[in-house]
Amino acid sequence: MKQTVSSSAIETSRALILHIVQLMNEEPAKIFHIALSGGVTPALMFDLWANEYVDITPWERMRFYWVDERCVPPEDSDSNYGMTRNLLLGHAPLSYANIFRIQGENKPADEAKRYAALVQAQVPNKNGWPEFDIVLLGVGDDGHTSSIFPGQEEFLSSSEMYVVSRNPNNGQQRIALTGLPILNAQRVIFLVTGKKKADVVSNICHLGDVGPAAYIAHRARNVELFIDEGAASKL
Ligand SMILES: O=C1O[C@H](COP(=O)(O)O)[C@@H](O)[C@H](O)[C@H]1O
Q1: Is 140 in the pocket of ligand 1 (CB under 6 A)?
Q2: pLDDT for residue 33
Q3: pTM
């Protein structure tokens, strides 16, 4: 697992944005299918991207999808898509035809199926699964990733691409990309910042499969961990 450690969450976010732009510059004719995560951590990165890196980003070659979504409408402050639209996508010269959101306002089981069919139709296929160019993941303090929480490990080997999961802390339903399509991605990048995440980062790096994030980190191809000094403080 390749680690990039920067001094602060801001510098970690900047390093990851530049890394993505560089990967795209290395393959100038390629369309990049990118699955984004939500939550608190990438908000800073999205804000910086919109404010500092709009001009150097090849937006026309990017296709955006979501790793997971909370089952709420886009206007809800919990919406992963809503947060990304407000901070980043709404400020970039992007065609909305290239943004494929999970419709959190729909009936969850139907939406998981609809979205899986959409991804199947848009993203190149390998081994029977979509092959995203980049899957950007976060990690919860409890070791969850996507919206696969500890205790929901069956979703790591599910035969469905997207499933309905539930946040055990508040009962909120989620739609989550499962383990096998995540492992099928060209590149899996974890963005983890803050001292609160130091234990979970240390567990991922030093222990076995202690949670869904660790399971993915130990098996995906081209796994990269972008962390700040706080998250790296127990390594
Ligand atoms: O609920 C979620 O949690 C994880 C981690 O989020 P963070 O708030 O701790 O940064 C995130 O990756 C996922 O997309 C999100 O829905």
Answers
A1: yes
A2: 98
A3: 0.98
**37 in ligand 1 pocket by Cβ < 6 Å?**
yes
Ligand 1 centre to CA of 28 (Å) is 31
CB neighbour burial string for 117-134, b if at least 16 within 10 angstroms, e if fewer: ebbeeebeeeeebbebbb
Measured CA distances, 60 to 37, 49, 66, 156 (Å) = 20, 15, 18, 32
Q: 205: pLDDT confidence band, cut at 50, 70 and 90?
A: very high
Does the C-beta of 147 come closer than 6 Å to ligand 1? yes
Domain boundaries, the chain: 2-215
> Which of 71, 139, 167, 182 has most ligand 1 atoms within 8 Å of its beta carbon, as the pocket-test mutant?
139
Using alpha carbons only, give the angle 68, 20, 136 rounded to the nearest 5 degrees. 20
Q: Is the ipTM of this complex over 0.90?
A: yes
pLDDT digits (tens, 9 = 90+) for 34-63: 999 999 999 999 999 999 999 999 999 999
The fold adopted by the segment(s) 2-215 is Rossmann fold (3.40.50)
